[in-house]
Amino acid sequence: MTSNPRPVLFVSAENCENHSDQVSFLKGWSVNAVDGIQNARRTIKENKYNVGLIHLEQSDGNGISDAEALIHENSAIEWVLLTNNECLKQHKFCKLIREGCYDFYTLPFNSTAESSLQSTLGHAYGMASLNSENTIESYDDYEMVGTSQQMLSLFASIRKVASVDASVLITGESGTGKELIARAIHERSARNNELFIAVNCGAIPENLIQSELFGHEKGAFTGAHQLKIGQIEAADGGTLLLDEIGDLPLTLQVNLLRFLQEQAIQRVGATSEIGVNVRVLAATHVDLDLAVSEGRFREDLLYRLNVLQVQSPALREREQDIELLARFFFNRFKPEGNNRLKGFSNSALIAIEQYQWPGNVRELINRIRRAIVMSEGRMISTTDLGLGNSGPPDSCSVISLDQARQDAEQNAIISALRYCRNNMTKSAKVLGVSRVTLYRMIEKYQLGKIPDDR
């Protein structure tokens, strides 16, 4: 939550009595009330507002056209219209709401409407803030979006670790945007004019990883017809992301440790070392401390990688951002759907808020894009999102949070396998994990071939 009240502009349209006292219940907001559209224009020039309320209950005169002009002149502000039921029967009022407003409310307020308006203004404020440096990071057409405390803390951590040149370990569940964090660190570092190279350690066959990372000389082995520059050497001067570092075989961990210690590599088949200047970032969804205790990961390598650490929060831990993200990605991918599509139904928004999102932001994006393409109505429904059964559990069937997460993970794997017709490569890509990890999960849950019900 913000420490200072957030400003909101309250505009009482011409010929309307000023009713700013009707929104005096708003907590955490500094309401600036003005009378008339012209006064509103002057106030907007002098102050910055993310959200605005327009009180308009008269359909005669120039009230609607003046309000429409104010809204279109200040499209960066998210507007909420306060009106009455009679006005909503008129086409021009509905057109104003549909084309220019974030939402609307009918007067007088009851306690439910007061609570709802408070929530709406919060979401609208977040949407209007998306272009702010503090709420969105954009790299190569990818975005990290959020106004929650978790994301603001993450943005602050990115800036801190970007200012130094030490190794960084980025941890978090699959689908939370660990590569985006790595790109953000690179873009804000002194190396931002050099290459950023990402290597998925879990997606490369074990017999090719050494050649992929360190390169090889011509004739080093059968099939090595020419010299190959490895990804570490290619990133010289820039940043190297070792994604899914937890899937790196133990035999390769020794070579990687030596590189981190000496800042030098030796190509396969070479007799001398080559010095390289690379900043190494590593990302994993695996608990590396547990992997060390089980003998699957070298403790000394973990110490080398984990000089600085950044945690990528799970989507379910960012409840404040879920609807914000849904609306953001809806606006981004809306051109892929039909022209009549306007947004989410109320039941869809409830389902989005209640769903646990085991696949995190990646799953949210996939569901919204699929819903946009497949929806035939004006509003995206729970069915379009595939969240028809996402309501709260029956009170008689309460389970532990750990069991709920395992159930959600298992259901996500089954859904991906069914959707991809048991194609492991495609399923792993949909889930945002390596094939090695997917096979491990299938073994964990003892899943056989999933029947294709299409």
TrEMBL record:
Keyword rRNA-binding annotated: no
Cited InterPro entries: AAA+_ATPase, AAA_lid_NorR, CheY-like_superfamily, Homeodomain-like_sf, HTH_Fis, P-loop_NTPase, Sigma_54_int, Sigma_54_int_dom_ATP-bd_1
Highest taxon, organism lineage: Bacteria
Coiled-coil regions listed: none
Sigma-54 factor interaction domain segment(s): 144-373
UniProt KW Coiled coil keyword: no
GO molecular function, one term: ATP binding
Entry keywords, A to Z: ATP-binding, DNA-binding, Nucleotide-binding, Transcription, Transcription regulation
GO BP terms, alphabetized: regulation of DNA-templated transcription
Protein name according to UniProt: Sigma-54-dependent Fis family transcriptional regulator
